[in-house]
Structure formats: C-alpha cells, structure tokens
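sry for the spam today, last one i promise. struct tokens for design, 275 residues
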C-alpha cells in the first residue's frame, strides 16, 4: 500500500492538519474509522462513489458521490477497505473546515454529505476530474491545496473563544466545559453555540473524543496497552470508566481493539480493522 501525508504551508496550515493520498490498499476488510472530532474531505479517484457501510445511527450502507465530506462523528463508522485503491483527502484541524466549506459545521455532525451540495456540482466535479488526471503525488497535493485556498474565507474563522476552548481540550487531561466557559469570558450556552457552529460537536462531546484520541495515540505507539495505567494518564476516573467510554466511541472493547492492532498492520490513520 502506498500512503503519503502532506502538510501544507501557511496560510492553509492554519485550517488543515494534512492532506493524504492512498493507493494499492485494496483488501477484503472492513475498517472502523474512529471519531476524531474533525472534518474530512474525501475524494475517490478510482470510482465516482464513496460508500459508508454503517454508522451508529444507520446500520445499512449508504452511497455518496466520489467527492464527499465526512462530518465530525461522535462514534466510529465502518467502511470497506476495498475503496482504498486510489483515494485522497483533507484532514481539517478542529474548527478549520468552517472557513473552507462555507456552512455551519454542526449541520454536518454525525453525517456525510456530497461535496457538490456545499460547493456546487461543477466545482466538485472539476476538482475530482483534475485529481483523477494528476499523475504524481506532488501534483495531486498541489491541485487539492489550490482548490482549498480558492475557497478559504478568513471572515468565517471561528470566534476566538472557540480557539481558546480547543487549546484547553488539547492541553488538559480533565477539562470541564463550565471552567472553560468561565475562563473564556462567555456563558456556557454562548460558548457551546459558537463551538458547535465551528467544530460540529458540543464542547463536552469533543472533550470526550479528545481524551479518547489520547488513548488511541498511546496504543498506536506501543501496540499493547496497560489499560489501568492509561486510564490514569488520560484523565479517566478508573479503568471501568475508560472501558465504557472507549466502547461507546469506538464500538470495540479495549481488548478487541488491542487485538486488532496486534493482528493488522499498514492501516490508515484512525482506522481499526473490524472484519
């Protein structure tokens, strides 16, 4: 499998963590894509279709166009790994998609949407056609970055209190929304409204996902996990609390998740093999 990550320069780097391209990843396997609290723009270069096999809300498969947006999910969703024959995407920073997509991100929460519904049919079609015609990783990344830069509107950047809250969730193991609101100078209700519009999730749900992602990062580094120790490191009251929250967000028990990491290799970021 060929998997490349490209980190864009400024000003795009303020909104996008990285661009990615994968090819040759066709395997008869299903992957759970773990919740990250972020938005993803995905383009299938092999077929003009993206299929989501199931989500927590919808147990049946749904098809989208070959250029689609994956909104911020509160739990894992499942896709077929056969779609990784040739696919690329944009991993936005939390709150970063608002400036590029032009719609409140809470309209995309726990959902996918065709890019054409946000940018219009012609721009979405032209972007995919150009990416399909590119022959090198550098050319693909350049085309995708230019398309994003053309769409950026700094006037749609999140309120400074949202950036402050995101920094708190990133830096602190235990972060109470009431405390963040007080330190930001806003009421909890006002902060939550601004946060949902920019990030797509309520602050409390995002904080839970941020903590979950810390656990996932530890597991990715080590391959095996002392769950009691990780629970304490990542701000959980105890291992039972971690187990319940981990299963709710990932759809997997910690033991099943750990076994998947050991048995499967060469997975994309944020993916865990489930079948």
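last one done:
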């Amino acid at each position: 499998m060929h998997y490349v990550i490209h980190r864009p320069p400024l000003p795009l780097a303020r909104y996008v963590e990285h661009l990615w391209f994968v090819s040759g990843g066709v395997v008869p396997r299903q992957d759970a894509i773990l919740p990250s609290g972020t938005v993803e723009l995905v383009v299938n270069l092999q077929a003009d279709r993206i299929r989501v096999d199931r989500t927590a809300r919808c147990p049946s498969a749904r098809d989208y166009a070959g250029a689609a947006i994956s909104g911020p999910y509160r739990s894992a969703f499942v896709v077929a790994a056969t779609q990784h024959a040739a696919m690329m995407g944009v991993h936005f920073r939390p709150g970063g998609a608002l400036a590029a997509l032009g719609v409140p991100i809470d309209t995309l929460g726990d959902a996918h949407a065709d890019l054409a519904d946000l940018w219009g049919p012609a721009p979405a079609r032209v972007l995919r056609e150009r990416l399909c015609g590119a022959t090198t990783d550098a050319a693909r990344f350049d085309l995708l970055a230019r398309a994003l830069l053309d769409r950026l509107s700094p006037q749609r950047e999140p309120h400074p209190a949202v950036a402050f809250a995101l920094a708190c969730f990133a830096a602190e193991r235990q972060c109470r929304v009431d405390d963040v609101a007080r330190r930001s100078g806003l009421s909890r209700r006002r902060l939550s409204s601004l946060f949902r519009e920019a990030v797509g999730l309520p602050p409390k749900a995002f904080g839970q996902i941020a903590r979950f992602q810390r656990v996932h990062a530890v597991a990715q580094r080590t391959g095996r996990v002392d769950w009691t120790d990780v629970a304490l490191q990542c701000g959980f009251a105890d291992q039972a609390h971690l187990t319940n929250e981990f299963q709710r967000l990932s759809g997997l028990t910690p033991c099943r998740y750990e076994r998947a990491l050991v048995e499967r290799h060469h997975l994309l970021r944020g993916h865990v093999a489930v079948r």
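The domain at 2-156 is CATH 2.60.120 (Jelly Rolls). ok im logging off now
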